[in-house]
Write a structure and sequence with these properties.
By secondary structure, the protein is of the alpha/beta class. The protein is built from six helices and 14 strands. Strands 3, 6, 7, 8, 9, 10, 11 and 12 form an eight-stranded mixed β-sheet that branches. Strands 1-2 form a two-stranded antiparallel sheet. The protein binds 1-O-pyrophosphono-5-O-phosphono-alpha-D-ribofuranose and uracil (URA). One of its GO terms (molecular function) is uracil phosphoribosyltransferase activity.
Amino acid sequence: PNGCPSPALGLGPSYRPESEKPTATVSRAVDQSNVHILSQTPQLIALLTMIRDKDTQRADFIFYSNRIIRLLVEEGLNHLPVVPHTVTSPVGKDYTGVKFEGKICGVSIMRAGESMEQGLRECCRSVRIGKILIQRNEETSLPKLFYEKLPADIADRWVLLLDPMLATGGSAIMAVEVLKGKGVPEERILFLNLIASPEGIKNFAEKVPKVRVVTAFVDQGLDEKNYIVPGLGDFGDRFYTF
Ligand code: PRP
Ligand code: URA
């Protein structure tokens, strides 16, 4: 991990005096303007505390991860443009609002990214979903592309790219390159992520600077095996097989 200490904040409702708020480690801030970190609320920190715990069993890991994923999807959708839209209410009055007008699709980086598909479907009912299978080599940490299957008209869509872990950034960068190869401009890709390392964020922003990132937390760093620290271990294993 790099030497910069993680910020600790007193968390809890505003009606509580500072002295009664427990101190928790919150996400680091980052320099990259295209990276949006979820608001570090008491709920988000409590959910992350659950899934980081090595003693949290699989059913709870899935349940609490799903709650964070839902927050990421809802926030991610806020980063898509909207157009004016006025409706008439049942009492005959107009309400001036907005609606989303583009087409979207999800693309999950398998295996772990598939865990985020359900949260996306809960918000976008019949969303099309593409898949990219990229696996990190356990020795070298280098990503390898095995398979991709994407909607035929993906170049006309906004793409919500899904992967809960951004460690070195290699897998996510490779996935973005696949999408760019299909004609999707970086500006129309939104990467949704649970936990990122500062190294991964930097690498990603250097290689694909126009992709927007929405993440729940930027952690301390990487260990010698390129696992995120403190992190939560292997997300795919904990969600699917442990
Ligand atoms: C994990 C994770 C990311 C990648 C992050 O997947 O889900 O895809 O590693 O690491 P990186 O930023 O250094 O590339 P993994 O390859 O372990 O496969 P899995 O999804 O099957 O667990
Ligand atoms: N993949 C994971 O699931 N966890 C890490 O910490 C790094 C890569």
